[in-house]
User: Fold this.
Amino acid sequence: MSALSDNLVTFAILYYLIAMIGHAVEYALGNVRTRVATAAPVRELVGAGGGVIPTPPAPVPSPPTADRSARKARLAGLIGVGATAVAAALHLAALVTRGLAADRMPWGNMYEFVLTVTFIGVAAWLVVLWKRPSLRKLGLFLTLVMVLLVATAELVLYVPIVPLVPALNSYWFVIHVSTIVFASGIFLFGVVPAVGFLMRNGYEQGKRSFPYTLAKRLPGAAGLERLTFALHAFAFPIFTFAVIAGAIWAEAAWGRPWGWDPKETWAFISWVVYAGYLHARATPSVKRNVATWIAVLGFLTMLMNLFGVNIFFTGLHSYGGLD
Amino acid sequence: MTVVDDRPETAAPAPRRRPNRLLALLRNSWRQLTSMRTALILLFLLAVAAIPGSVLPQRGISPEKVNEYFVDHPDWAPRLDRIGAFEVFGSVWFSAIYLLLFTSLIGCITPRLRDHVRALRSRPPAAPKRMARLPQHTVLPAPPGGATAIAEVLRKRRWRVEVRGDEVSAEKGYLKETGNLLFHTSLIAVLIGVALGSWYGWSGNRLLVAGADNAFCNTRQQYAEAKLGPRVDSADLPRFCLRLDDFQARFLDSGQPEFFNATVTVDGPDEATRRADFSVNSPLRLNDASVYLLGHGYAPVIRYTDRFGNSQISDEPFLTTGDMGLTSEGLAAFPDANVDPATGQRAPDQQMAFTGIYLPTAPEQAPFVRSQYPTERNPALNLVAYRGNLGLDAGIPGSVYQLDQRQVRTGKVKEVGTKLLRKGETWTLDDGTTVEFLGTERYVTLSIRHDPGSTMLLISCGVLLIGLMGSLFGKRRRVFFRVVPADPGEGSPTSGSSLMEVGGLPRTDYPGFADEFTQLIAAVKGGDPAAERAGVREGAE
Assistant:
């Protein structure tokens, strides 16, 4: 069962790669399409005035070659989405088999943790994509993140299955870790539209240097920004709950709810930074791209907490399993 | 934290009067402090200031690592220490940041609380004259009942409704601001809870060896290290005693622990006498204290018989060295050895001490330095005997787990032999005295704590979470209805009836407002929402 799980992870990475290539091809072929479609600008997912009922863009008469190219691009994009869905299914199967093999929730070490966080991220992406198909082009960035993180988990963080140490053997393990994983997955997904917005926003302001040109075919900046906020506003209370649950558990296990253990310290830092993002976004005088940079910074602190703290520092949360 | 930008400029002061400079300065500083920009900067500073607390070792968490850091970086450490880098979370600068942040917070939420209470008590405002300028606007045939019927539908949908003649104003989503204020207020409560815990709480760590002779009572002196809050006196400690009766541990074949359980007898004036079990993750809850199981180990029982035939027993705990197999190191000191029973004379150079390594599962062959498994499958005690003046009478505080190395260096204590003992074995030293390894007792490492702020902390965290969700997901919005007689010239769909003009205003960022507006109108009209959609047009921003 354990070996099956490992194989499933490898296949999932393969499918994420296929998905990434599909999205990349769509991106490359999209040139023609955007040139043609300039008459009908990319549909925004949410109107600036709030809640526009989307109406299909008026058909634009286009030369047949461009039309064929656009159809090819669309096909590549759909292949990308399909491959992402297959990869997500394999990913889930890998987690389930890992959990069955270990006879516990598969969140006992860093390998399992990263695997679960990335799954939550991709699942949230598929849900959002289902509701707002116009976001499809973000898939390139999302699959890139998935390939990087899942491959890192597989190549660097992998550890064989071991049971939990007594300190982790508590129902709080399920409550605390599941919510942390869930919130982290949403934050992970949230950084994709955040970065997309920063690039697209620059592009819309007329910047044509390197990173901004990538955003040429992304959905509109306002929509990306709104999605960024929605994801962060959704994840933040869950993250808050997870930290509180952790404090309650820490009181029972270590005798104090909060002890500035490195992991706790970084959770505090992340919480403060994300709180800063939510405040900055609610303040009209703070520009939206400044606020979004804070969200990106928040994600970097989450990464630091996941990788940096487990690898460089020793603390009570030393569950990385890497020696 | 006030969103300053939203506030209307205060009226300009009377032109000719000279303002008090100091007052103006104070007022401006206060405004600066309570502005969102300052709050954001303080939040950011708080995050940055916490970083050294995770990078550098902290006294409160691992004092021994701080000492190591001093040894490794002799030039840097004192400088860092001067700025409080080893006690970041208690340092002046960290406290300054969060106190300023909380002052800013209080300065911001107090006026907002006042405004919100006023808003909660006031009625929704009158409909604007030109409703067409609202983000949502439409004109439709009015329902038969007119304003009263509209108000009825709105009330059913839990809007706060005010009817003024032919006009209906309604507002909803006060929960957003309520949640926001609740969230920020409970942050203050969290801080108070933490403060209560550190002022009135106390904690102590201790090793407890099994057996009736080793029972421990909760007094200041009985702790190896104890921390009492500034408002706690030694006499305030609750009176109870603990005796370790049993300790069970189960390990996997790899040596990884799987299960721990300690059984103790609780006793004392403040506690009912009883037996109790506790383990990792489920502490022993007493009336005014909680007992946490942090670790465990072995205390070798060693009997030394001196030249006069007097026997003494040591069962000091040996500290684990941190490996999987529970290899432990310790000291058995016999300062009262070789006291002549006839004269009662002490021979200061005839004191005995044994340093040792205890291996619960010793390897088959030498070197006998590392245990292979945490349970006692093949126990062996590797002892080094010392004789001489142990230096315990000098009054210099020393560790009970280590031999005073100064005495060894100065030659006052001499090594007299080394031997590996199995359970029950006796070793006869060069002077004919004997040392016997009788067996082991289990010991547990306990943390005993009382935190009077924890209940407040828990409650305020719960409130915080509820407030946070209200603040993030609540949506404040207003709708206005005006019933006007149908213009006979325009030929309304239902001739003879009246029309209603409807306007909607989302007061916060709310992308779904248009949909809700459509549904609301449909409900008021009692018609099909899809049909109405065409009638709703987007208003000017």
Observations:
- Residues 32-60 of chain A have pLDDT under 50 and may be disordered.
- Residues 2-53+69-312 of chain A form one domain.
